[in-house]
């Protein structure tokens, strides 16, 4: 009897364990698409979560979100801020907050639980938190903008002058000094929470009691400073201590002030470096104190003697003041900070991930190229700064020059006239010294160091003990990975990835050396390829704010935003660039499910649409930059401009319908039809089956964008493929506007083999050609000239992920709710694998191919479904997890299977 009881107990415990494992789980919980974010605006507050389950075909049937004022309240079930109760819904992304008003500068705690298809609940997610930002000017508690010295509005040079001002120009100014500012304060009670809100223009590094606050580089992000200024939020509770404390801040120029002593793309200034600070201290007894920036702060010039975002940085270590950012430092020689001219922009929280140093590169080769001069080769072109370790005497100077290329004599070569950009370090001479620039960076593979010991007899010169490159990029999480059996394709993926991450900063730059500007074309042409590699939701929300700030009174959204420099002609108004103002919001809806951004930007989008309509001639846009950097420049400008006009107006019609503006939706739908008719009348020759000149771009954009009338679609597609094969000999000719649509028109319409042949070569300009010539990041032009680190041509990643790996979403799907898993085992490929982090969780695929079998492994997130397309014939045998499948469709040598969430191994024999 006793043994039977034990047996029953064991069976019961096992069943409980199996039930627990079989239940749905919340494995990630996000607020505003981030983990434990700070600086949240409650008007934008939304929650998302990802789930896992060992069962197949699981969807969420309900959820419950709760919020508490403390972690203790949350874990004890006292949801004193918000309780959604049980909401019957399958929505697990973009769940917007609908509770009572939240307080500013406050940390809240939340969690979520869900119910599965069988209405069985999960456990609560782990406790999460978010911290609200500062909502109104009054919430800044009279914090003032302060600095070391002021520049009145009369000294402003805005917009910037393109390149340098002419000698004698009265507006020429010297490099603004980079100051140190400090403030001491005393803690007399026990601290429960300390929240720091800070902005420094152009950039800042902050510290408390001698230790850095955060690890961001070039904070805050670049904006139109007359419209928007970003601030950052930090929880520094653990960095405070009883008694005396000290805060220190170092300021740099960034894009806020650019003098012309060295290389510049543009010269101008919004003002001198300045700072605003609010430290909210909440004690355990519930009372609060505030430390604010005001004239009681002390200020002095820093050891940074020169810094611009374009020209580089100089540092004199002899000017360091040890302990300047700690309590008790003797600052009598410092002067009181001054109240400075107020910046014009509105303070808003930075919602994107910060820029950080996320990689470190070690030199692969060192070459002596002259007296006391060494060139370090790091083997990889990336955005970055040098970090040097050196021993020497006080007053000795090292000069470091980063570059992408070398001259024939081995010295560094600045392309496109980007010179001089350099870093200078003056030693203090007290042993081992380490230094890196703080407010500038460059595209760097090589670093030339001058003034160092290269021979034993030069004993008096400094000795470099180590030199590394720190690679800076936006800290957005990785969103995917790809690999296949073709070594060239893997190298192309790496080549493109380095260009993408080198140009993901606080906005998307065109390159890390010559311009560092946010040309809208890069994000317009590359957003999907970028999206498969990095989670850019928050970045694109920031980019949209920049465009709204840059919009002109007449509705034009310029080619660059922020518009630090006002260019002329097509360099200020090119529709292929400007339509980003519409298509970014469409992207955030399609790929992330965000409808709120559509509502926020609707006014901006419609004003720009009206601008384009007024600029059109007979519903055609016949101006702009065209298919920039194509080979041969044979595509008429009107083809690319009008194609983007049609695409953006069609998207605007869909967005108008989405937010209930039915009249607008109808108007824009009709306008799109009119544009399509005008486009075909102007550019299509039905006898020759050609658009315009018949270039790859002219043929591919109408196919991919839906401009071809259905009657002629097959004719145009076949003509494109025939021309590629017979006339172009599988050579690539499209530029950065058209290349994306060339790729899509081939792999989405049954011609991936043609695309494979075009890509799998290195003998003509293209991806392989760049690698053969030694490129380590994607180059600006197909022939390998100009910038050696530019992401604009990286569209091939779309094929790698959506085509070869087979990870995409069905046409009417939003946020990858309905996956389209359609691998393309083309050419000599024998295997491929891909991973992509969708809003619902990780999508994973892996396939192998032999002469008699195709094996495809997939993982589909909970709360989604997938249509899987497998290469098969009517006599093929298909197995799912070892069992034969009989319920599927066969279309054009493809088997279609409908699958719910889960992990599957599919075989075709």
Q: How would you describe the overall organization of this protein?
A:
By secondary structure, this protein is of the alpha+beta class. The chain folds into five domains: 2-131, Sandwich (Immunoglobulin-like), CATH 2.60.40.10; 137-352, Jelly Rolls, CATH 2.60.120; 357-468, Jelly Rolls; 484-804, Glycosyltransferase (Alpha/alpha barrel), CATH 1.50.10.10; 821-908, Maltose phosphorylase, domain 3 (Sandwich). 23% of the residues lie in helices and 31% in strands. It is built from 16 helices and 48 strands. Strands 22, 23, 27, 28, 29, 30, 33, 34, 35 and 36 form a ten-stranded mixed beta sheet that branches. Helix 4 packs parallel to helix 7 (580-592). The longest helix is centred in the C-terminal third of the chain and has 22 residues, at 637-658.
The name CATH uses for the topology of the largest domain is: Glycosyltransferase
Protein structure class: alpha+beta
Major sheet attributes: 10 strands, mixed
Principal-axis shape equals: globular
Strand proportion, as a percent range, falls in: 25-35%
Helix segment tally: 16
Question: For the CA atoms, what is the radius of gyration?
Answer: 29 Å
Number of domains: 5
The CATH architecture name of the largest domain reads: Alpha/alpha barrel
- Total strand segments: 48
Uncertain regions spanning at least 5 consecutive residues: 3-20
Average of the residue pLDDT scores: 95
Catalytic activity: Hydrolysis of terminal non-reducing alpha-L-rhamnose residues in alpha-L-rhamnosides
EC number: 3.2.1.40
Organism: Larkinella humicola
Keywords: Hydrolase, Signal
